Amino acid sequence: MAEALLDIRGLGLALPDRSRRPLFGKAPLRPILEGIDLKVGRGECVALVGESGSGKTTLARSVLRLYEPQQGEIVFAGRDITHMDELELRPLRKRMQMIFQDPLSALNPRRRIGEIVVQPLLSFGAVAPTAAELNARARALLQQVSLPADFARRYPHELSGGQRQRVGIARAIALEPDLIVADEIVSGLDVSTQARILILLRELRTRLGMGMIFVTHDLSVVRVLCDRVVVMREGRVVEEGPTEAVFARPQHPYTRALLDAIPLPEIDDDWLSGKDAAAALT
Ligand SMILES: Nc1ncnc2c1ncn2[C@@H]1O[C@H](COP(=O)(O)OP(=O)(O)OP(=O)(O)O)[C@@H](O)[C@H]1O
Ligand SMILES: [Mg+2]
Fold first, then answer.
1. Residue 242: CB partners within 8 Å, gap ≥ 6?
2. Contact in structure between 207 and 145 (CB atoms under 8 Å)
3. Which one of the ligands is nearest to 32 CA?
4. Which residues line ligand 1 (CB under 6 A)?
5. Which of 79, 179, 188, 262 is spaced 20 to 30 A from 94 at the CA atom?
6. What is the largest CA-CA distance in the chain?
């Protein structure tokens, strides 16, 4: 495998169980993730799959250190970030970006698209960019995700769901991060829009060499994008391996059940090599 960009070993996380919170005092902790090992190489895409509630989002958030784990360690780009405080994490934060499932709630409704996509440059840039630089960057970022330049002046509600998701992607790649964590980002979209977003991500990943964690419960999209698959169940990893191997010879009964549950993959190799895919990139 490529040099490890992310190396998670024995990760254990428990979160407060609100349903058992007493009237006074703290809620007891409930284990959510246990003994998770997860590696992502530079430029590699790892799919995180598993049924609802298996802990995919929690693991994704832990990778970005939105939670502090109780057990194990998280090493990102050679740095142990397991218990780093926000100040120490800050320079690393710009190297890891998240794309969210619902772009409408993730995008500030009062900001124009052009402002949204360059926001990371303003938050993390070492020197304040000039207005001309910001205008040029906004244009370039929209172009990278195949959106017209004049969308820069629009507001999020003036875009379609698929277009908004492209804006989320443009913002995530603004700083050319080493790692992108995408949580169910194509789930709400129709199949052809899904395919367009997947093709775009694949192309960007190759061009920018980003590592990626792609969270989904839909195995049919994994094949298009991911090199390896990690299957989760009840807060643990039950199987992992190269995508083709896991699809061809699933070892764990749970993975077999998961594979059986998917309908005929609508986005298959034929689709990808067809004219629809070519059109999607233009
Ligand atoms: N902030 C939180 N506090 C306490 N428990 C949580 C929190 N977030 C998630 N959980 C619990 O952790 C478990 C895993 O949730 P998680 O959201 O990671 O699952 P998931 O695999 O992403 O599911 P889905 O496919 O539905 O998005 C669930 O039982 C959930 O109730
Ligand atoms: Mg989730």
1. 227, 228, 229
2. no
3. 1
4. 15-16, 32, 50, 52-58, 217
5. 188
6. 62
For residue 277, the one-letter residue type is: A
- Protein residues placing their CB within 5 Å of the ion ligand 2: 57
pTM assigned to the model: 0.88
Residue 30 makes CB contacts below 8 A (sequence gap 6+) with 14, 15, 16, 17, 20
CA distances from 14 to 4, 9, 21, 124 (A): 26, 16, 14, 31
* Nearest C-alpha neighbor of 48 from the set 204, 166, 215: 215
Distance, in Å, from the CA atom of 275 to the CA atom of 129, rounded to the nearest integer, reads 40
Exposed / middle / buried, residue 52 (Cβ in 10 Å: 0-12, 13-18, 19+): exposed
Averages of pLDDT over each 10 residues, the chain, 282 residues:
83 92 89 97 94 94 96 96 95 91 86 95 83 93 92 95 91 93 87 82 88 89 89 96 92 87 58 54 42
Question: Measured between alpha carbons, how far is 20 from 40 in angstroms, rounded to an integer?
Answer: 36
Compute, in angstroms, the gap from residue 240 CA to the centroid of ligand 1. 21
Q: DSSP secondary structure string, 157-203? A: GGS-HHHHHHHHHHHHHTT--SEEEEESTTTTS-HHHHHHHHHHHHH
